[in-house]
Amino acid sequence: LPLPLGVLFCRKGVGGHSTGERVSAGGYVQLPSGSASFTMYTGCNQPACGKAASGYTAAINQLAFGSAPGTGPGDACGRCFALTGSADPYSPSFTGPFTSIIVKVTDMCPVAGNQEWCGQTKSTPTNQYGKNFHFDICEDTGGSAVFFPSGHGALTGTFTEVACSQWSGSDGGSLWNGSCLSGETAANWPSGVGCGNQGGFLFLFLALRDLSFLLTVFWCEGTAPS
């Protein structure tokens, strides 16, 4: 059967940075480890990556997520990170105990409305607590209850990207139990080109017409907050 194909691409190439961080096509900054701030949120069942999960999950700040709001999954989607708390910015005298958890990124914390924690931009790459990265840990899947000490809802500390084989959870099928979105694989940041999402969304429209398939593919990319 004939297969008419229509394709529209508006994706850009991937850039690099001499300091070792990965700067994607849209200017998103993505590191395999560093310091971060942590908060919690609820209502995680419709994440920006398009796939929810039953294990510990988190939203990551927009500058690291790799996509603008409304443009689909970014390069951070499906990556797993070990998070460790070490201080409470609101209670500097608090010394713990602290703990570590491993989360999978399934959502974005956008700049708009979240300037305190997720306001990192290309021109101002740290938030109000001096952190380049922020993880908003999902309450619904239990991660926040394990990570945050009783009475403390915000922490600072460190993160390290890890293999998703270390993550305990399910996200609807084996194809997404590894790093990245369904069927994709990638080395940890900043190696290689990453997960291949890179701030784009893939919209496929299939229609049956006169015993022929019509496939239209749109791939568009956002840019990092400036």
Task: Describe this structure as you would to a colleague.
This protein is mostly beta strands. It contains three helices and eleven strands, in the order βββββαββαβαβββ. The strands form three sheets. A six-stranded mixed barrel has the order 4-8-5-7-6-9. Strands 1-11-10 form a three-stranded mixed beta sheet, with no helix packed on it. A two-stranded antiparallel ribbon has the order 2-3. It is globular and about 40 Å long.
Question: Topology, pairings included?
Answer:
Layout: E1 5-10, E2 22-23, E3 29-30, E4 33-41, E5 57-61, H1 62-65, E6 80-87, E7 100-109, H2 115-118, E8 133-138, H3 143-147, E9 155-162, E10 200-209, E11 212-221
Parallel strand pairs: 1-11, 4-8, 5-7
Antiparallel strand pairs: 2-3, 4-9, 5-8, 6-7, 6-9, 10-11
